[in-house]
Amino acid sequence: MTSLRAIRPFLAPGLLALASLFMTSIATAGAPADDSRSGSWALTVAQATPTPEVPLESAPPLPTPIAHPGDASSTGCVDCHSKVDNRQAAIADEWRASVHAKEGVGCADCHGGDPTSDEITVGMAEAGGFQGVPGRDETVALCGSCHANADRMRPYQVATDQYSKYYSSVHGQRLLIARDERVAICSDCHGAHGVKPASDPTADVYPLNVPALCASCHADAAKMQPYGIPTDQYDVYKLSIHGTQLLEEQDLRAPTCASCHGSHAAKPPRSDEVVAVCGQCHTATQALYEESAHARLEGVGPKCWTCHGTHDVSEPDERLFLHEGGVPDYLCATCHSATDQSLRLEMDRFEQESDRRCDTCHHERSLIYSQVEAIAGAIGGARDAYDTALHRIDDAAALGMIVTDADVAAQEARTELIKARAAVHTTKLTTISALTDAALAKSAAAQDLANAKLAESDFRREAMVIVIALISLNVLVLVWLRRRLHATS
Amino acid sequence: MTAGAKSEEGPGGVLGWVENRLHLAPFIGALLHVRIPANAKTFYLGGITLFLFGIQVVTGTLLALYYSPTPEAAYESVLSITSDVQFGWLIRSVHHWAANLMLLFLVLHLLRIFVQAAYKYPREITWIVGGGLLLITIGFGFTGYLLPWDQRAYWATVVGTEIAGDVPVIGSSLLLLLRGGAEVSEATLARFFGIHVLVLPLLLGGLVALHLLFVHQQGLANPSRAEARPGRVTAPQPPDKLKPFFPDYILDEVIAWYAVLAGLVILASLFPAGLEPKADPLVTPEHIKPEWYFLAVYQLLKLVPETVGVVAPVALVMIIVLLPLLDRNEEIRPRRRPIALGLALVLLVAMAVLTYFGGRV
Fold it and tell me: Sign of dihedral through CA atoms A394, A396, A402, A406?
């Protein structure tokens, strides 16, 4: 104990130094933590104190909620402040529209004072408990004093772990350890006076609005400059399959920033967490991946990001198998540590979408390369058969034929093709081939049905010519009769 | 009975057997052996419309043998008619195209009568009955459109009945009457089917008989000379040059029917009636468009307030039906009726433009 007391003065600086060693994932905004970068990034973030990957300090104790006379129906504050100036009036309006106003949380719950009084000397008297505008470092505790209180939140069925989660986040850790007040606090995302639930489409924290909310800081080069982290994530995300689904298709199933990074516990997922994070939605794919040779490599094996990227995830297809136009220049360092030749995938090697290919790692003379070729061939063949069936169905539909049965067969072929593509994550040729064979059989059935429709259409046209010829013959006879009639009359 | 006796007494065989009992020859003779103005230009439009109605009766009866008027089975039965039943596709496609052509030829017939002023004395009632036939034919289109119970059918009916619901005063009652409930449902399909295959055919058959009876009684109008009115003194005119209705006119009419039949066969073969996905009340299509003959009203509703958009077409139809009572000008030559023809032209152009833009979506 004596020795502990002796080192206490050095504890905080020591922890900060330790934090700099762990500075691997500081606000990489989605990129899986990459140990290889820590060196270079540590240099570029010299202006800001590094934030540790593992929380070094847990959340501080919660303060007691502010006590005051009256309740939210005591409008002494609003009566005066809404008349002070436009800004104050806007604040009053924001509060009136907020979930707090609806649930009886008033001015004094955050600012203290006496809301029952119309007298400034009473209502805003420090002696009466008035606290004014809380500082940024005090705001989290102020929100937490209610929101981390299970008894207080029970009527609303709202989670109470945001406070502890926040302090486990990159934001919270920086605020706590480095006293960095530039990081996001509760009011930056939820607003101060106009707090709305995340289910409200007008709220900044509504899923469709979350990417823009995060981007309001993370796409701001000036704000991010001290941390030396990229600012293009939002632009890249917007063009990704996730971004287009969420922002263009308004598909709330698509992930926002918070889906992968967390909201209150915002932090980039580590490389060994990525499979679980993506697997939250891609459950079946995750299960298939777990069967693969890649998964058996555990921490050092390729993960989702290796082939699909991070913020720029695009719709996968057969291009992901092999480089077009020949194999790449193989470098040992692509996959192996320069020091001990152990397996080590460097993230920057897969930064470019065009580098996310099986043969980026698997040498063309390797056995696995030929297996990749076989898998690519099987998938490509199944896809071609499916496309051909679709073209035949389109041809028949364009001729006005009803192709419902062929559509059903094509749908079944598509299901098998999707299953085969997903099975690529197992890296097992036999599993994939069984599914591509099924896809080929279904595609052939669909194509046969479409061909039958095309043959039927041909028959109709030929029959039409015969019928028109018969009608014409009848008309000729009638015209002849008519002439005879006119001649005789 | 000897052969000589047969020739004196009339036709033998079955016809003779029937004639000996019913004595129909004078009646049929009175129907057929009439004379019409030699310069009458009907373009055979009314007869073609009647021919198409006959096709609808035949093909509709065949379709009804396989059709099931319930939301659960309607779509599948139409799919089966189109895909499985021998020549079902042909019967359905002919029914589909004949419905469109019937309305088209009916409107052309109406325009012919209008331009030739054949709705004026003494044929006012014939025109008004014809107006009723127009309304019934539109009713056929509206009720028949729902029967396939696919997405297009369902949603066009949702929109169509909602438009009816916007009629002032009686709108909500009319909506309830058409749908048989708050939504387009099983009740709507049942009553649309009943109206389509029973009520409207009986009404149309009755009115057609009446229409033809009037035409027979009054004869075809002479497009170059107004009918003499009783009690009016007019300059004596040479008698109309006439030609026999049978067989001369009938022969021409049958040739026209053959031409239309050929057109029907071509349309049904090259552009068979399609089928969209089954009706799903929970999936609203991006664009809901009615049949071409409702496109003008559909487009009008986008441009004007709802009440105007609903009342204006209803008022227009009423004006058309009651035209002989409103247009008291006795002149029949087109060049002497610039206002009537000018208004009709403006109306036609407006409807064509609205139809074009309505169909562009």
Answer: negative
